[in-house]
Automatic annotation (TrEMBL), chain A:
Species: Shinella pollutisoli
InterPro entries noted in UniProt: MetI-like, MetI-like_sf
Entry-linked Gene3D superfamilies: MetI-like
Family that this chain belongs to: Belongs to the binding-protein-dependent transport system permease family. CysTW subfamily.
Membrane topology qualifier: Multi-pass membrane protein
Protein's name according to its UniProt entry: ABC transporter permease
Subcellular location: Cell membrane
PROSITE patterns: ABC_TM1 (PS50928)
Principal location: membrane
Transmembrane feature ranges: 12-39, 72-93, 105-123, 158-179, 200-233, 253-274
Automatic annotation (TrEMBL), chain B:
Top-level taxonomy: Bacteria, Pseudomonadati, Pseudomonadota, Alphaproteobacteria, Hyphomicrobiales
Localisation per UniProt entry: Cell membrane
Transmembrane parts of this sequence: 12-34, 69-88, 100-121, 133-154, 189-211, 234-256
Family statement: Belongs to the binding-protein-dependent transport system permease family. CysTW subfamily.
Protein's recorded name: ABC transporter permease
Main location: membrane
Pfam families, per database record: BPD_transp_1
Length: 289, 262
């Protein structure tokens, strides 16, 4: 319905609460955060101001740029690994599992962990990879190594493993949807024309699934970019990520203006990626109707 | 069974590997919660319920658990009330800025929670609201609004619009139409998204971390305990949380999907 004089009262009755809530508790807080990013700090207080000093400091100080680059690298690694694990699984669910019931059951068992306690799922890797952990004791008891190794936990690999573990279902979800929507007759047509399974995959299935790849990669990248639990639990001294810097600015370092500027940068990055991915997705989408 | 090509067998292998990767850690958590040892290593040393008794005797942990339950309950109630009205309005009316409004509501789902947490912390600070569980409830309700709105809107889009018109033509008031036509159509989507919100709020860390005051929720309590070191008590409470979350999420996913098939 478009808004006319007759429909406005009903619309207002429904929409005023959500609108007020979203304006007051989302738009205003984000706006305040962005503006605090321009304030100055004179320890221990902050003063309203309009200057780009905080941004200049973030982008010039190697202490910050190193962490930002590292976070980009780790988020990219996580995204690629999640894609490499998630794609075969989604493909298997859609094209290899024939029974609808089994497929639904397996799909559910992939996505359910996604919503189950993120903290505890990150924590399990601490008990698996630790020096006293499950993996080490298994290796020692099978005689593969003579003494527990401390190489598994507290490094960037442990962080990547943990984050991939957390975000794989986010990758499988959109991939499953796009693969499931590919009309089977396209694949049959390709096979009838004598094209082998690999070329069929490369020329037909993969291009049609790009939308899911982009959607999954965007979610995985954005969320792992802003994670602060995995670095604290399984990351080592070289494992600080952007989110940990943010924690510090609002905690021990007590520099809200700088923290807000950094959070604004993260917000901007996510918005740009979401925008890019919706563009790419639309450009890459083939009309199947 | 059909004969599989070598590459299909490889695919099955990789897929089973990924499924194992998804579940083995959770199995570890459960196993070690019953293991009679302070360290989480093999071989297992014996069965015990000691760690469960320990957390049931831990007053701080139980208090955090109660806080989490209250927070999740109120946050879910708020998200559902606001989310359902928003979904109804978005589904029924076209208005300027509709797309923007939708994108803003959905933003916290793909934005790292820490940014939402920091934005709300700044906001509370400016208007002088202290960090507290109430602040956490409002933060969760806001961050989870997108879950309810997206699920309920998806369901509304599948309802035949003629039903609303028929109801209105037969003289039903808008409220009666909602009560007898719309609500039955979207009920399972509402319950499904409410269960999802409840679990997500119960487990939430990043927003809570910035908004909570002296009273903490269970994940924050566990998080701060973990920074000091591991205790098998965490495995016990973790097993309980994972088990309950699993049931709620399976229910939720079932409720959110059922209409699609019928």
């Amino acid at each position: 319905m478009t808004l006319t004089r007759r429909t406005i009262p009903g619309f207002a009755a429904l929409f005023s609460l959500p609108l007020a809530w979203v304006l007051l508790l989302m738009v205003v807080p984000y706006a305040i955060m962005i503006s605090v990013g321009f304030w100055t700090r004179q320890f221990p207080l902050f003063y309203p101001d309009f200057q780009f000093g905080n941004y200049a400091q973030i982008l010039a100080d190697p202490q910050y740029t190193t962490v930002i680059l590292r976070t980009l690298k780790i988020a990219a690694c996580v995204t690629v690994c999640a894609l490499l694990l998630g794609y075969p699984l989604a493909y298997f669910l859609v094209f290899t599992v024939r029974s609808q019931k089994l497929r639904n059951l397996l799909y559910m068992s992939v996505i359910v962990p996604l919503w189950v306690s993120y903290l505890l799922r990150a924590y399990t890797w601490k008990i698996i990879l630790g020096t006293d952990g499950a993996l080490n004791s298994l290796l020692v008891s099978t005689g593969l190594v003579s003494a527990p190794l401390d190489i598994f936990l507290y490094n960037q690999t442990a962080m990547v493993v943990t984050l991939v573990y957390i975000f794989v279902p986010f990758m499988v979800m959109p991939l499953f949807t796009v693969l499931d929507n590919i009309p089977r007759r396209l694949i049959e047509a390709s096979e009838d024309l004598g094209v082998g399974p690999f070329m069929t995959f490369w020329k037909v299935i993969f291009p049609l699934s790009l939308g899911g790849v982009i959607a999954g990669a965007t979610m995985t990248f954005c969320l792992s970019f802003g994670d602060f639990v995995a670095p604290v639990l399984v990351g080592g001294p070289d494992g600080t990520m952007v989110a940990n810097l943010l924690q510090t600015q609002f905690g021990a370092a007590l520099n809200w203006p700088l923290g807000s500027a950094l959070a604004t940068l993260v917000l901007a990055l996510v918005l740009i990626l979401l925008q890019l991915s919706s563009r790419l997705d639309r450009a890459g989408r083939v009309d199947l109707a | 069974m059909r004969r599989l090509h070598w590459w299909q067998r490889g695919l099955v292998g990789v897929s089973l590997g990924v499924l194992a990767f998804l579940y083995l850690p959770i199995v570890m958590l459960v196993i070690f919660s019953f293991n009679d040892s302070k360290v989480t290593s093999f071989p297992l040393s014996g069965f015990t319920l000691h760690w469960y008794e320990a957390f049931l005797a831990n007053a701080q942990m139980l208090r955090a658990l109660a806080n989490s339950l209250w927070v999740a309950l109120f946050a879910t109630a708020l998200s559902v009330v606001i989310g359902v009205t928003a979904a109804l309005a978005l589904d029924r009316y076209d208005f300027p800025g509709k797309r923007l409004f939708q994108n803003v509501i959905l933003l916290p789902l793909s934005l790292p929670g820490i940014v939402t947490g920091i934005a709300m912390l700044n906001f509370y600070k400016q208007i002088g609201i202290p960090q507290s569980l109430t602040a956490v409830v409002i933060g969760h309700a806001t961050a989870l609004l997108g879950v309810v709105v997206s699920q309920v809107m998806a369901r509304l889009a599948k309802i035949n619009r003629r039903q609303f018109e028929a109801s209105a033509d037969l003289g039903a008031t808008p409220f009666e139409t909602f009560r007898h036509v719309t609500l039955p159509g979207i009920r399972s989507a509402i319950v499904g998204s409410a269960l999802l919100c409840f679990t997500l709020s119960f487990d939430e860390i990043p927003v809570t971390y910035f908004l909570t005051g002296r009273e903490v929720t269970l994940p924050i309590y566990i998080y701060s305990t973990l920074r000091r070191g591991i205790t098998p008590e965490i495995n016990a409470i973790g097993t309980v949380i994972v088990a309950v979350s699993f049931v709620l999420i399976v229910l939720s996913v079932t409720l959110l999907r059922d209409r699609e098939r019928s």
